[in-house]
Amino acid sequence: MIETEILIIGGGIAGTSTAYHLAQHGRQVALLERGNIASEASGVNAGSIGAIGWGNLPNLESYLTMGSLEIFKAMQIELGYDIEFRRSGCLQAVQTEDEYAYVQRRITTLRSQGYTVDLLTVGEAQAIEPHINPRLLACVHIPLRAQADPRKATQAFATAAAEHGARILVNHDVKAVRLHGEGSYEIETSRDVCRTRTLVIAAGAWCGQIGRLIGVHIPITPVRGQMWASAPLPPRIFQTISAAESSLQWFTAPGNDGEHPPYLTHRQGARVTRHLYGRQTREGEIIFGGDRQVVGFDKVPDPAGIEVNHGHAAEVLPFLEEVPITRTWAGFMPFPLDGTPIIGKIPQRPNLYIVSGLASSGFGRGPMAGRLLADYIHTGHRPHVLAEADPARCVAAME
Q1: How many angstroms separate the Cα of 174 from the Cα of each of 16, 33, 188, 209?
Q2: Three-class SS of residue 355?
Q3: How confident is the model over 32-47, as a mean pLDDT?
Q4: Strand, helix or coil at 317?
Q5: Could you tell me which of 55, 23, 78, 74 has the C-alpha nearest to residue 370?
Q6: What is the C-alpha radius of gyration for the chain, rounded to an integer number of angstroms?
Q7: Do 336 and 261 meet the contact criterion of CB atoms below 8 Å apart?
Q8: 19-23, 76-80, 172-176, 252-256: least confident range
Q9: pLDDT recorded at residue 181
Q10: pLDDT tens digits for range 338-392
Q11: Which of 23, 60, 128, 368 could form a disulfide bond with 67, CB atoms 3.0-4.6 angstroms apart?
């Protein structure tokens, strides 16, 4: 029997960050992970860290992105963990007149709100990314954005948590959860039984399954993202790279149909937009991805989607047309049905918390999500920025 004050289910970036920040507060914490740390989405994503600044009136997105950026920076520079963090900036390719008109309006709005973003001519973009396609109409430059190795970063949070006294228990697959009266939870795993007073669900795309064990419905949909990589190459890409096509599509028609989450690339089996993101790692691999599909838990990459994504990347960086793909992979992202993160206390059960619903930006937003939840649990007072993410809006007891 393992007994602990606080138990976290999930060894991804959000769960390990929550464990680390709770352990920093001096709380007794254990974390259960069914496989290894960062074995799911937190370890197989592109490693992009999105941020456009705090803005004049910081909101939840500002806190999650800028707060996480500062935490990543501290992990690398102040605490000495080699997570390959680099504030590289990001270039977003603008390919059509409609995209150009959209990003002009968007940048004007963002700058008026105090955010850091610019529209560059292609010549200006080539000065910082020499291999960008000169036929693009323009590029959005987001200088605060960064990158890191996702597996190393997630493992760093787990290691830091352990160094502050947390117990990190891998290969513990949760089989059952039992609530004893109003006081404690008993969690049966594939290897042991755990007892805790406070339970945190940080299981990513599997939050719905864990919720069912406790008798609550958590509206998280697993969305498959897939990626491809080249063999290691000399340095050719210096920013993180994206494209405006999907941003315009989701601004025009986000896809809020009440049955599926918004911001997908496919609906009813058909593609509605292309989505693109990628970078070159320190080891030299060029990695890109983009598709977001609801396919259950089918982890096999779709070759047609990989081909579309590779072609889109080559439109932005033409040299990629001659760069062969050496490997592909996929993972599952936790998309909330209403598009907003789910972070806070689940009211239907005592001392039950969740940190999830970070969608495709879980890696870049997970560190601050974990810190905000840890502060909530430690103090008993919900940070004001988490009001928007309140689980009470969408989590319900199962009949």
Answers
A1: 17, 8, 6, 10
A2: strand
A3: 96
A4: coil
A5: 23
A6: 21
A7: yes
A8: 252-256
A9: 76
A10: 999 999 999 999 999 999 999 999 999 999 999 999 999 999 999 999 999 999 9
A11: 368
- Single-letter amino acid code for the residue at 251: F
C-alpha span between 309 and 301 (Å, rounded): 12
Please write the tens of the pLDDT for every residue from 91-130: 999 999 999 999 999 999 999 999 999 999 999 999 999 9
Q: d(Cα 215, Cα 33) in Å, to the nearest integer?
A: 21
pLDDT band with cut points at 50, 70 and 90 for residue 256: confident
Measure the CA–CA gap between 167 and 182, rounded to whole angstroms.
25
365 near 64, Cβ under 8 Å?
A: yes
Q: Which of 65, 176, 192, 48 is nearest to 116 (CA)?
A: 65
Count Cβ neighbours within 10 Å for each residue of 20-47 and write b for 16 or more, e otherwise. bbbbbeebbbbbbbbeebbbbbbbbbbb
Express each pLDDT in 40-64 by its tens digit: 999 999 999 999 999 999 999 999 9
Amino acid (1-letter code) at residue 246 = S
**Among candidates 298, 286, 355, 289, which has minimal Cα distance to 322?**
286
**Residue 228: strand pairing partners:** 288, 328
Q: Which amino acid is at 25?
A: H
Rounded distance between C-alpha atoms, residue 219 and residue 322, angstroms: 42
**What is Dmax (Cα atoms) for the chain?**
66
Tell me how far CA of residue 15 lies from CA of 226, 276, 299, in angstroms: 22, 27, 22
Contact 394, 346 (CB under 8 A): no
| 327 vs 316: CA distance, rounded Å | 21
Q: Buried b / exposed e across 207-231, counting CB within 10 Å, b at 16+?
A: bbebbebbebebbbbbbbbbbbbbe
With beta carbons less than 8 A apart as the criterion, state whether 355 and 375 touch. no
CA end-to-end span of the chain: 31
Q: What is the pTM of this model?
A: 0.97
The phi, psi pair for 121, rounded to 5°, reads -70, 165
Domains of the chain with bracketed CATH: 2-80+150-219+338-397 (3.50.50.60), 90-143+221-336 (3.30.9.10)
